[in-house]
Amino acid sequence: MVVISVPCMNGGRGEASYAKNSDIQVPENLETNKRNIYITKSSPPSVCQAFLEQFQRDFSAFLSLRSEEIVSGGRMFLTFIGRSIADPSSKDCCRLWELLTKALIQLVNEGLVEEADVDSFNLPCYFPCEEEVKSIVREQGSFILDTFESFEVNWDPSDDVNNKSFVFNKDRCGQNVANSIRAVTEPTLASHFGNAVIDPLFARFATLVAEHLAVEKTKHISLVISMTRKQHAQP
């Protein structure tokens, strides 16, 4: 048997932990985003701007690095979750994270999580709209944007795509969504809040998602873009 060691972030709350040393990766100037882990309708403009500016830096750096690997005329396809309108607090991208925040606040009320830990945590991600993506591609300058498409995708990909208004089994869908979000967020959440809260957090999150989907079948917005590497400048 071959044992593979996968590098990961240090857990816990010690001096060498990710939670104590991760300031460089959450956007700055988010002190006013109390009891929220992402943008909400109540977030001040400075919070929305901080998330946007971090995404602009990160996506621009990503394009720059990829441009070094792709030959002139080479193609690159990207797909990621975004939003359909300019408002960064739209339910396209925020509703799911509001429910995860609610689950965390429930744990705060039960004494399982410190409120200060919620206040100091912000998701290290951003869900852009079409114009934000296009603007960064233009300004970075290494690629020509060929096509840009967006699609609605169910929170639960196993749910019936033909049913536009409600889910048939809210509890199953709630658990499926919770599992998918846990798969991508657990390392980050565990490093900040500790491993002990993960199971109760996602149990509560699954229930909140199920209750939401019983009322409204909210969708992800999937962005798909195709770009061509520009010709390299001649020496």
TrEMBL record:
Keywords: Methyltransferase, Transferase. It comes from the Eukaryota. This is S-adenosyl-l-methionine-dependent methyltransferases superfamily protein.
